[in-house]
Amino acid sequence: MAASGIESGTERRRATIHDVARSAGVSRQTVSRALNDKAEIDGATKQRVVMAGTLVAVVPLLVVFLFGARHFVRNIAAGALKG
Q: Highest mean pLDDT: which of 7-16, 31-40, 53-62?
């Protein structure tokens, strides 16, 4: 399983530059320029790209964590009720 990624059916895949571009509302070239700290990228655009990249990578992990934690707690509670 990838450290960061997008849920795709039952498989997870790594987030791509295309995912970040779509999330930020910019082109893939703009994402590349922003992440490579090129001078021709506006500061606000760079900030939007970095934030989109963070969200694309982190949100799926948070969802897995939250659902996993809920499942874990539910299992503990079910075990406590049985025994």
A: 31-40
| pLDDT one-digit tens code per residue, 32-55 | 999 899 999 999 999 999 999 888
- Displacement of CA 10 from its chain's centroid (Å): 16
Domains: count for the chain: 1
Question: Rounded distance, CA 38 to CA 27, Å?
Answer: 15
Residue 19 lies in a domain: yes
> Residue 52 domain-assigned?
yes
R_g of the chain computed on alpha carbons: 18
C-alpha 2/C-alpha 23 separation (Å) is: 19
Closest CA to 7 of 63, 73, 50: 63
CATH code at position 51: 1.10.260.40
Question: What is the pTM (predicted TM-score) of this model?
Answer: 0.61
